[in-house]
Design brief:
It comes from Sphingobacterium pedocola. Residues 312-403 form the UDP-glucose/GDP-mannose dehydrogenase C-terminal domain. By secondary structure, this protein is of the alpha/beta class. It is 41% helix and 12% strand. The protein is built from 13 helices and 12 strands. It has helices at 14-23, 35-42, 53-62, 95-104, 124-135, 157-163, 173-183, 196-227, 231-238, 262-268, 274-305, 329-339, 364-370, and strands at residues 5-8, 28-31, 66-69, 77-80, 113-116, 144-147, 166-170, 191-195, 311-314, 346-349, 373-376, 393-396. An 8-stranded mixed sheet has the order 3-2-1-4-5-6-7-8, with helices on both faces. Strands 10-9-11-12 form a 4-stranded parallel sheet, with helices on both faces. Helix 10 crosses helix 11. It is elongated and about 80 Å long. It starts with a strand and ends in a 7-residue tail after the last strand. The chain binds nicotinamide-adenine-dinucleotide. The site of nicotinamide-adenine-dinucleotide (NAD) has 25 residues, from helix 4.
């Protein structure tokens, strides 16, 4: 088979990208270290939840354009889409990117294109270039290297992969042009050329910007709580200003991008990224604060009523109407409240998840019917029409009951 593209990492981003390229009649050899992932894909099935991905993968595999494997093969374009987590001390961990690069080192040849899509600290593409040329000096000036970040929204990945604008930065002009012509084959959004460092920084900037804007809203929510002002009304009114657009506060910030990527900046530029670091702290503090509020409400109830209240924790996902619990602040809050709950009845609710390894889940209507204190952490659609009785204490940290 005439393989053209090797993708390394077949997760939430790598698999949809591989399927899309393959659906454009380009041969893709997808690589993953997980045998389970490889076997699932080769059976024409998928191991992650993403609308329309099943069809795309089934078609790509059936028509012979997509094959998964645990080892790479020779190709002319290599896409690195492996995880880039941070270590315990919030230092970025690019060992997966390096491992993926090590795997293809012996396969690289003149004219090849090497692209990193994984969210990466500034300078990672140049670091990998230096690594490649140190191991294969004869390739110097003969291969193309670029960085192209991904900004798709989980749940709408198959559409956004094609229609979103992309920022593409090579280590030199030839690399940028080569990468542009690659993406032009399957992306309909506009392609924006730049250099590798700017493209790396661009991805980090986008997520740090979201994090900082949410931190501003969360900070307002703390001030408003003390000042006895409804923060949702306040923001709605402030946003009537033609040049003000404040986001909504919540119980913290979660997910594997916005709550993670700003650390790639604070780790490398600690003196210059004070506001970005403070935004991270503010958003983390908001979760702690929410848990403390629940505990106070419980104590107050106990003092007044002479018995322990039952508590409903409404929502575990990191944002509304999804089943993704990664880095979810609601989970941290639920854990903190549970740790301290003694024998009190706790109802944990997440309508988008059937079962959870740690929490016993309760139907959202039953939980609200039975609980003395109802704590809203995530503004899921199901929660918007719930009714309460006068004796119930409602703690709404996500504005879902604000009519
Ligand atoms: N998921 C998103 O919404 C999103 C959006 C934009 C950017 N990103 C970035 O894209 C990158 C990938 O994220 P993801 O969500 O697809 O991750 P993921 O965890 O879903 O998938 C990564 C895959 O890579 C595999 N892997 C790990 N090391 C490997 C290696 N050395 N060789 C081959 N395979 C290996 C893992 O088994 C896994 O299947 C990350 O840098 C992430 O920050 C993700």
């Amino acid at each position: 088979m005439n393989t053209k593209v090797v993708t390394i990492g077949l997760g939430y981003i790598g698999l949809p990208t591989s399927a899309l390229i393959a659906n454009n009649q380009i041969h893709v050899h997808g690589v993953d270290i997980s045998q389970h992932v490889v076997d699932t894909i080769n059976a024409g099935k998928i191991h992650i939840v993403e609308p329309d991905l099943d069809k795309a993968v089934a078609e790509a595999v059936q028509e012979g354009y997509l094959k998964a494997d645990t080892k790479p093969v020779e190709a002319d374009t290599y896409l690195v889409v492996v995880p880039t987590p941070f270590k315990g001390d919030h230092q970025p961990d690019i060992s997966y990117v390096k491992a993926a690069t090590t795997g293809i080192l012996p396969l690289l040849k003149e004219g090849d294109l090497y692209i990193i899509e994984s969210t990466s600290p500034v300078g990672t593409t140049e670091k990998m270039m230096d690594y490649i040329f140190a191991e294969r000096p004869e390739l110097q000036g003969k291969i193309y290297l670029a960085y192209c970040p991904e900004r798709v929204l989980p749940g709408n990945v198959m559409y956004e992969l094609v229609h979103n604008d992309r920022v593409i930065g090579g280590v030199n002009e030839d690399s940028t042009q080569k990468a542009l012509s690659f993406y032009r084959r399957f992306v309909k959004g506009e392609l924006h050329p730049t250099n590798a460092r700017t493209a790396e920084m661009c991805k980090l900037t986008e997520n740090a910007s979201r994090d900082s804007q949410i931190a501003f809203a969360n900070e307002l929510s703390l001030i408003c709580d003390k000042a006895n002002i409804n923060v949702w009304d306040l923001i709605r009114l402030a946003n009537k200003h033609p040049r003000v657009n404040i986001l909504q506060p919540g119980c913290g910030v979660g997910g594997h991008c916005i709550a993670v990527d700003p650390y790639f900046l604070t780790a490398d530029f600690p003196m210059e990224s004070r506001m970005i670091a403070q935004a991270r702290e503010t958003n983390n503090y908001k979760s702690f604060w929410c848990a403390e509020k629940v505990k106070s409400a419980r104590l107050e109830f106990e003092l007044k009523q002479g018995r322990e209240p039952s508590i409903a924790i409404m929502g575990l996902a990191f944002k509304p109407n999804i089943d993704d619990l990664r880095e979810s602040p609601a989970i941290h809050i639920a854990e903190r409240v549970l740790q301290d709950s003694g024998d009190a009845d706790m109802y944990i609710v997440e309508p988008n998840v059937r079962e959870h390894k740690v929490f016993k889940l309760t139907n959202y209507k039953d939980a609200v019917e039975k609980a003395d204190i109802v704590v809203f952490l995530v503004a899921h659609n199901e929660f918007k029409t719930l009714e309460f009785n006068n004796s119930q204490v409602i703690l709404d940290f996500c504005g879902v009951t604000n009519k």
